[in-house]
Design a protein that fits this description.
The chain contains 4 helices and 9 strands, in the order H-H-H-H-E-E-E-E-E-E-E-E-E. The chain has about 250 residues and is α/β, with parallel strands linked by helices. It folds into 2 domains: about 100 residues, no CATH class; about 120 residues, no CATH class. It is globular and about 50 Å long.
């Protein structure tokens, strides 16, 4: 029964993704063809505002871009569908919990057997999911944990020279809407970079692309596959710059 409910839930989630994608395409093609233009304009205003942060016009462009970006998102039929889908999801979950209440089986064990309790260790992540702001690794030595975050508007800076990485493959996964990602890697580490970006620039060691538009690419150092210690980097940006450098 549990597996059946899980399969139904996965199927339901898959249909939501498919329907949401179709609704977004219909909105862009028929209902709101200027949406892409408005998102590009607001993203460009935020980018220029951050670039000219010390000037008055930079602040005006930055906050104006955020305002127009929020207006564009709130006016999307896809956003309204997402809110409706979330509400529908919780209604279905509530209905299923009432229709199929969770049953706790009674397990009888012999008195001479000691039940085994599995211990889970919770560690504090280096970064949190944030909508607005900057995050960076500590300036001094710190304990490493693999990174998997989502960010809205802001910069992320990671310096791997102040930590001890474990043997094997270290993973860094960053999804960002608008901002810059900077990762500094020691010379002895092999690196693999998977990056996707709508618009911005990319610099990975000696590979530079000043104008990136709607690209996905993969770069890795020659000895990555056979290295005992290596770093795999996944990054995704709507608007912004990626820089991976040696230190």
């Amino acid at each position: 029964m549990g597996r059946l409910l899980k399969n139904k839930k996965n199927e339901y989630t898959g249909w939501l993704v498919v329907i949401g994608t179709v609704v977004l395409l219909l909105e862009i093609l028929f209902f709101n063809p200027g949406l892409i233009f408005s998102l590009f304009v607001s993203g460009g205003m935020i980018y220029l505002g951050r670039k000219w942060a010390g000037k008055k016009k930079g602040k005006v462009l930055f906050y104006g871009g955020i305002f127009f970006f929020a207006i564009s998102i709130l006016s999307m039929k896809t956003f309204k569908f997402l809110l409706f889908a979330i509400l529908l999801h919780y209604i279905i979950q509530f209905y299923q919990s009432k229709k199929n209440p969770k049953k706790i089986p009674l397990v009888l064990t012999e008195s001479d057997k000691v039940p085994h309790e599995e211990t889970l260790i919770k560690s504090k992540p280096l970064f949190e999911n944030i909508f607005f702001g900057q995050q960076k690794t500590p300036a001094g030595a710190y304990e490493w944990n693999d990174i998997n975050i989502q960010a809205g508007i802001g910069d992320t800076s990671i310096d791997l020279s102040y930590t001890m990485l474990p043997k094997g493959e270290t993973v860094i996964f960053i999804r960002n809407i608008i901002g810059n990602i900077q990762i500094q890697v020691p010379y002895e580490l092999e690196v693999s970079v998977h990056h996707s970006c709508l618009t911005g620039s990319t610099s990975v060691f000696d590979h530079h692309e000043s104008k990136v538009f709607n690209q996905v690419f993969h770069l890795k150092t020659p000895g990555y596959e056979t290295a005992e210690q290596k770093v795999k980097i996944f990054t995704s940006l709507l608007v912004g710059n990626l820089e991976v450098s040696r230190i």
